[in-house]
Amino acid sequence: MASSEVTCSGPQTAGAPPGLTGEADRLLDSLDRSAFTPTHVRMYLAVALGHFFDGFDINMMGLVLPGIVATFGLTRGQAGFLASSVFLGMFVGSTLIGLIADRYGRRRAMIGSILMYCVLSLATAAASNQTSLVTLRILQGVGLGAEVPLVFTYLSEFMPARRRGLLLASSVFFWQASSFFAALVAIWVVPAYTWRGMFVVGAVPAVLLLLLWVGLPESVRFLVGLGRLREANAIVTRLSTVDPATLPPSSRLPVVQPARVGEIVSGAYLRPTLGIWLMQFTGGAVFFGLAIWLPSIFARMGFPLVKSFVFTGVITGAGALGNLVGGALLDRIGRRTTVSLLLGIGGLLMLAWGRATSPAAILALGALTALFSSGGAGGPLFAYTSEIYPTRFRAAGTGWAASWKRIGGIVAAPALGALLTAGTPGYVFFIVMGAVLLTGAIGGYLLGFETRGKSLEEITAALCGKRR
């Protein structure tokens, strides 16, 4: 196996074929220096649609949960377990898919994950009891959890370096905007077709997504890592505006050792990995906690069902717009600073939100909180995550980071449900989540590593104390 990047561990390739390293370097430099072309746009939109429909299936649970509770007579504890069950599957999917994608390719892994979660969405719509519903939701979560890290891995390895931060962060706009779309769909579907209709709607995009992904190329960096330079060159020639033949080779050295999961939490990667995992956990706990319980909290406040859906839609829609705000800041003030700052602002706003009493204040503060925390920090955090790790374990590193977001959801759903069941005043719910966000902001900043303005290979070299 040949690759053209420096990593902190692993033996260097001795006696690589003359010209192999130089050709690989030129291909990667060509991708990094290319202008943003219509082909990039088509790739980005295809990936973004996959993100959108993945988000729809995950984020609609809070909207269908009241109907499921009524159908099966669930207690608050059972409802909390059902809501968190998808995160159990997503944890498995996000941790395993990186290893699969780093071995067999990003494109194949994505096609498999899309097919899995769409088919299981149809099966979930036909669930006959609580046990089958939980089981199917866990299995669906495997496919849903696999999609997110694959999107960021794939985009980070293709997009021009100077646009990479904004494009990666803004892709989360589609994932979170699906919450707003889901709320609008629920207003029409749930009263007419019950909660089962929402799962059917979530499965419809399968054919479109599969057709789009079948037409996408495999990651050039993945192909280069396998020494398949002829295939990589053909893709770069079609995609990049910079002719690789006109670029000088760099001093990046090839490595041959396959990735080991332990490398993610060792050596130069330990501190940034711990910082990323902390921010993913805290951000996931708050995001999924709100997605699952916010409609129920609004109902507890006395808002009718449709109005609670509208409020939820507006707030989650503001979160989606926050990804654009965060993405615009990434290349101005840096990845680590952007994520930490916006998580911190979101935490402070969460504390104020908990004290709001009027519908206007509840809606405004909720929208601002989501704008900064769920959106403003959410997209940039995944952009930052996918840049930290080298190509040979980028998918695995991004997948493990995403799994900590799922763990946040697994912990938050039943914990916050228990808090509500205990009759705790509503503002305590928001104080807890505000404190969680502030913890992630401070810890993530102290442990982080700045990646702004560097190519993926330069980030690896900087972390390892090497110079290109």
So what's the overall shape?
globular
> What is the terminal-to-terminal distance?
21 Å
For the record, the count of structural domains works out to 1
Count of separate DSSP helical elements: 17
Identify the CATH architecture.
Up-down Bundle
Key features of this structure:
0% strand, single chain, 77% helix, mainly alpha, 17 helices, globular, Growth Hormone, Chain: A
SSE blueprint:
Blueprint: H1 20-33, H2 38-59, H3 61-72, H4 76-104, H5 106-125, H6 130-158, H7 161-203, H8 206-214, H9 220-225, H10 229-239, H11 270-300, H12 305-333, H13 335-353, H14 359-388, H15 394-421, H16 426-447, H17 456-463
Helix pairs in contact: 1-10, 2-6, 2-7, 3-7, 3-11, 4-5, 4-6, 4-15, 5-6, 5-7, 5-8, 6-14, 6-15, 7-12, 7-14, 11-12, 11-14, 11-15, 11-16, 12-13, 12-14, 13-14, 13-16, 14-15
